Amino acid sequence: MAKAKIALYWCASCGGCEEAIVDLAEKILDVVDKADIVFWPVALDFKKSDVENYPDKYIDVCFINGAIRFSEHEEMAKLLRRKSKMVIAFGSCSHLGGIPGLANLWNKETIFRYVYHEAPTVVNKEGIEPQEKVKEDGMELELPSFWNTVRALDQVIEVDYYIPGCAPTPKIIEDAINAIFTGQLPEKGSVLASQQALCAECPLNETKPEKITLTEIKRVHQIILDHEKCYLTQGVLCLGPVTRGGCDSLCIKGGMPCTGCFGPLDQTIDQGARAASFITSIIEYEDEELIEKVVNDIVDPIGWFYRYSLPKSILKRRNMEVKKK
Amino acid sequence: MSEFQPKIVVFACNWCSYAGIDLAGSSRLEYPPNLSVVRVMCSSRVSIEMILKALERGADGVLVTGCHPGDCHYITGNYNTLRRYHLLRKMLEDLGLNGRVRLEWISASEGERFAQVAKEFVEEIKKLGPLIIREEVV
């Protein structure tokens, strides 16, 4: 049988997802045994023109990580979709928008104003901003357009499966690759991880009392955590109850509460809204002033509850006017 | 041009507020016609998702109404609503939707109170203007 052809690409991402693939260590050799890598800009010298020259549906499986931030990302995603039989959104950013998605609390204008003018470390007396087209020595150079809104991969192209995580753990990557090569894939559009919330597999779950009530909410630097006791009961926000499991509770075992990178469960439409609902349901007080006090302990609720999922939430972004030039 | 007429979704609990709104109607009290009432069993049934969805789908404002504290048919439902509302209000500020959601306690005998709240809220939303959900990518 001919070897399968796989491609890997990155859009707006930090490179951690690529690192996660390298972290497969010698298991990557098993993959290379079964498949040829035909495109992987991070590690191998292929060009966009190589992909353009492949016939349509030439690539068997294409893994794309990173959110869609620039016009270039959309163009590459669409090109790879055309050339691939199966596209897999790899990691939180392409699954839900991820950390880059938090930029949806601003838009192009406000981001540029801060980054190129107002940031304390910037010296830019001429007020230069990156231009999409520049003439230099009679040559016209082009940069991709920077967009107002960051999107997840499936808001741009059709996605067959999702591998969640920031970054995906070696175990779920391995399971996904095995499922692909043995043809044991679930229904199209599935997230290839657990179907239960993280709490179901959390080692601290047995220390959880019948009912948790909070009188204050602390951030991890304000408390010395007891690592043998459910973090929520200690007053620290942990998104385990509203986050998909399958990560082997790596953060919990490493002494940090869950921040929600595996995203919502199938039946949830908006992870942040669900998280906010569950947190408020365990605040002990009934008095408005005291409730307000606890709520004010949550310094940045959007950053907490939508840390990885703002572009895939109901509102997708902050509602703000875009000034047309 | 005619004056902006906001669309407002009202979530009303079955036991107090819906009866209160009914009373406003049967007492022939006048209140603006901008409100569409959705009956739910308890104000705490109204999840944050439902409120966000209403705003995203074209509501200019959302009014959540429930029994007064201590009067909940399910004993503590409205306290959940109250806590949720405080956090939601903070989240909406960050999402650029300040002032679009309001929580009010309306008992079954407070038809007049409802008419008053309805007038106030419609005025507030008229001042804020139509809610245009902006998802401009480019």
Could you tell me how far the N terminus lies from the C terminus of chain A, measured between alpha carbons in angstroms? 56 Å
Tally of helical runs of chain B: 4
CATH architecture tag of chain B? 3-Layer(aba) Sandwich
Instruction: Classify the oligomer.
Output: heterodimer
Q: Biggest sheet of chain B: strands side by side, in what order? A: 2-1-3-4
The CATH C-level class name of the largest domain in chain A: Alpha Beta
Largest sheet of chain B: 4 strands, parallel
Classify the fold: give the CATH topology of the largest domain in chain A: Rossmann fold
The strand line-up of the biggest sheet of chain A is 2-1-3-5-9
User: Average pLDDT across residues of chain B?
Assistant: 95
Work out the helix count of chain A.
Answer: 11
| Strand/helix succession of chain B | EHEHEHEH
What is the highest CATH level, the class of chain B?
Answer: Alpha Beta
- The percent range for helix content of chain B is 25-40%
Q: Write out the CATH superfamily name of the largest domain in chain A.
A: NADH:ubiquinone oxidoreductase-like, 20kDa subunit
Spatial shape of chain A: globular
What is the CATH-assigned architecture of the largest domain in chain A?
Answer: 3-Layer(aba) Sandwich
Percentage beta strand of chain B? 15-25%
- Could you list the spans of chain A in which at least 5 consecutive residues all have pLDDT below 50? none
Mean pLDDT of chain A: 93
